[in-house]
Amino acid sequence: MADPEVDHGFAYNDLGEIDILFSPFYKPDWEYDETVERYVKRILYCLAEAIDLQKPKTPWLLIGRSTPSPSVATSPSIKTFGTIFLVAVSLIVGFIFIR
Question: Where do transmembrane segments lie in this chain (predicted)?
Fold first, then answer.
């Protein structure tokens, strides 16, 4: 268990880093912090240092899914060819039944 006398109101996560959201140090104490400006002055140095320490050492690379290529049945050239083929077959069948 953390010693509050030594830790000065900091909470730590499972990696041993300061947990900014759960640390009571960062919660406003309006008996001590009479104004927002005084609160910001009190936490700014520690907050900036904690953020700098927790920044990733290497740049992040976001890997997402690539957009799927259109399937063979829906590609524009196949649709065009299919439409022309359907019209041609319809005309041939129509000429056969007219005779």
Answer: 78-98
pLDDT per position as a tens digit, 17-45: 777 777 777 677 777 767 878 778 777 87
Question: How far apart (Å, rounded) are the C-alpha atoms in residues 61 and 67?
Answer: 18
Distance CA 89, CA 92 (A): 5
Q: Assess whether pLDDT exceeds 80 at residue 55.
A: no
Indicate the pTM of the whole model.
Answer: 0.34
Give, as one character, the DSSP assignment of residue 11. Answer: -
Residue with tokens 């640390």: 23
Q: Which residues contact 30 (CB under 8 A, 6 or more apart)?
A: none
**Is 8 in contact with 25 (CB distance < 8 Å)?**
yes
62-66 CB contacts, 8 Å cutoff, 24+ apart: none
- Sequence letter at residue 75: S
